[in-house]
What does this fold into?
Amino acid sequence: MLAEERHKFIVDLVREQGTVTKKELAKLLNVSVETIRRDLEVLTSNQLVRKVHGGVVSNKFYTGKYPEMDYGRRKQSEKLEKSEIALTAVSFVEDGTSVALNSGTTNEAVARELAFCGKRLTVLTNSLTIVDILREDPKIQVILCGGRFDREENAFFGALATQFLDNFSVDLLFLAVSGVDLFKGCTDYKDEEASLEKKMVAISSKVIVLSSSNKINSASLLHICGLDQVSFIISDSKLDKEVVKRYAEMGHDIVVANPRGRSLLEDLDD
It folds into this structure.
């Protein structure tokens, strides 16, 4: 896990629990106490948490919005995990389906798989990167929603983009999110992204959430949808089976991709 990912985890946990010790964090993140100490120094210097003896507490001046990794670093992060998720996701796409993809590096991986799946599809997205990936495939009709252009994300957001989506009704949404929690549902960091993603959920007959294992059981600032609005979640092969079991007990299925690209649910059925 990258340092930025640990920092996000720590901030989210402290916000939820109010306080946490260094030893607890070291155990949860499977790192040394010294590594946690360095992480807390960074978070304290940025006023994201406040140090106390043996641990940290929530900073009352902290607004709850932890800055996400920039697009370039996210693109390089967890390539294998995103590839596993994407390969599994595409196995649920049937010929003739209309598919919505919100912007982000996980759905870019999905787009690369769709480009070689050989199926006739209509893809609705706010991402220029996804358009570029799919533009050479004559079997895939691509619809790009306009709006305010975010150069860092290479995607469109804002009121115009959200309103544009009102013109459509799609079969399937692959929703890539910043956090998934049993009780808080699916969440994201940025208000314009969350607003657009809410609209994508509203216009989609079926919603499949894509989330790397380190984002399961975490929550970001802004709510997108509840898990009752989600058909199931796809995660990577690093996800603990106990997490899958717990979600299943609460009525929420997680399809876990293994390194061969097959779902572990298929393995269990064998």
Notes: The CA atoms of residues 127 and 206 lie 20 Å apart. The radius of gyration is 19 Å. The chain has a mean pLDDT of 86. The longest strand covers residues 170-176.
